[in-house]
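Figure 2 data, in text form.
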Amino acid sequence: MIATLLIALPAVPAPGSKKSEDKPDGPETPEQRKSTTNNLRCIGLAFHNYHDVNSVLPSNLKTKDGKIGLSWRVAILPYIEEDELYKQFKLNEPWDSDHNSKLIDKMPKWYAPIRGKAEKGQTFYQMFAGKQTMLDPDGGPVRLADITDGLSNTLMVAEAGRAVPWTQPDDIPYDGEKPPRLGGMFGGDFHAVMGDGAVYRYKKEIAEVTLRRLIERADGNPVNVDGVRVEAGKE
């Protein structure tokens, strides 16, 4: 059964259509931290509701010729109270088709950047894409049961270091070797929603080994987040 979303957000500026890697200007505020926490909680709830209905976590949508065409952010639209927008997409076409490209400007508020440099239609909220992540391009859709390291120990969606068009199937590349770029809205620190729906803020000083263990869903290694993780709302 799909839960009703009751999270209220303050108005936020519209995001963009091209990739941006600029660092945010000016001091952050408690209101900005609250807004990004609300966004991530909404996305996390949508993931669980999607899994309740489909028995797998959301993943990128494929076109009629079997290629990756639209982002998981489109796939969860019915679970963030955006059914009408979802119905406007041609799901068998890529994100930049003549039809679908016209919908980029209709990005839901839950994906909007809280701060940082981004153009209209862009978002910083992205999954990790790679082997052993929740968005495994080669392994197919992931079930909650596949996250054997524990939902509370595994990152689901995080604030990336760069913004991308929200409908584009473009996320945070992860190869298990070099650390991914994160924290484009908060100067290197980043907020993320875990597999269990909890939202935390992670410091940019987080060790690479700790970050890898948080990203990989079934590596079997313990993870120690002491000193680098703060529960959202208690920073």
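Caption note: Residues 131 and 232 are 28 Å apart (CA to CA).
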